[in-house]
Amino acid sequence: MLKISVIIFLVNNSLFVIFAQSNLERSINSLSRAANESFSWQDIPGSALWISARLAPFKLTHKLDMDGFGIDREIQSQWSVPGSKSLGSTDPRRYPETVFFGGMAVTTAAGLILGTDSYEGYKHSFVFFKAVMYTDALTELIKNTTDRKRPDNSDNRSFFSGHTSIAFVTSSFLFEESNALLNDYVKDPALRISLKVLSFSALYGWAGYVGYSRIRDNKHYFTDVLTGAAVGTIIGIYFHNLYFEDGPTLMKAFSLGLQGNQPTLSFRYNLR
User: Fold this and answer.
1) What is the pLDDT along the chain (272 residues), one digit of tens a residue?
2) Rounded CA separation 68/125 (Å)
3) 56: Cβ contacts below 8 Å, ≥ 6 apart
């Protein structure tokens, strides 16, 4: 009986090792394939800009001067609270880092333990990282080439808001992800639209709060926040559409027009 038990134990462990090794090889192959399809040589300049902006940001002698507009100062006087430190003003990278590393961890665990194909999960995480990287790089580039003092006069890197652009690229990409999942798995139209509204409210609500907090904490003007929100939203939706939809159809959602003598930019999104 003891010999039989030992034999069964050894066989089970051998099968487990073989199974685990097979899952590991499959996961590594999926990781490599996803990385190869998400990044190309065209991303080298963007990656270099992103890295240099973080490690050794360039400083121009002459920058583009930008003063706050009248509407900026009016909103600032009504919304800002000098000395305030809102939750939305914490490190802006915590939000996308949590999403990226969380997604990678779940995908890896599912591949190693359950043996599921992890290619799609890895690719979505890598494309998300790419969207955040380009947003961060563009934000730093503009900050380093423009001269606008913050409302609290702490420095001249007010335009545009990095907290806001990073929050919006993260939320917009996540909403596109949830939107696609709901389209695939929720067949009841009323339930699907309700869940999309809830998802939109939660994700864009948080990003909007981050933008508002930068004004409340006297760190940014309204136009800094508005520009950051537009940049983050455009890049997030663009990259998701480029890799996971029929193509970069983002601009169909935007339209230019006139209201009186003032130019307007409108954004339209179909929750169906």
Assistant:
1) 444 444 444 344 443 444 456 778 888 888 889 999 998 888 888 888 888 877 767 677 778 888 888 899 999 999 998 888 899 889 999 999 999 999 999 999 888 887 778 899 999 999 999 999 999 999 999 998 999 999 998 889 999 999 999 999 999 999 999 999 999 899 899 999 999 999 999 999 999 999 999 999 999 999 999 999 999 999 999 999 999 986 555 545 555 455 554 445 555 655 55
2) 37
3) none
Q: Which structure tokens are listed for 250?
A: 């983002």
The DSSP secondary structure of 105-131, one letter per residue, reads: HHHHHIIIII----HHHHHHHHHHHHH
Q: Answer yes or no: are the C-beta atoms of 228 and 163 closer than 8 Å.
A: yes
Closest to 234 in 3D by CA, of 151, 143, 139: 139
Nearest to 49 by CA among 120, 145, 124, 126: 145
Yes or no: say if 235 and 130 are a contact pair by the CB < 8 Å rule.
no
Domain borders along the chain are: 2-37+68-267
Within 10 A of 219 (CB to CB), how many other CB atoms are there?
23
Sign of the CA dihedral running 136, 56, 88, 102: positive
**Alpha helices, H only, the chain:** 2-38, 44-55, 70-79, 94-109, 119-145, 162-185, 189-216, 222-244
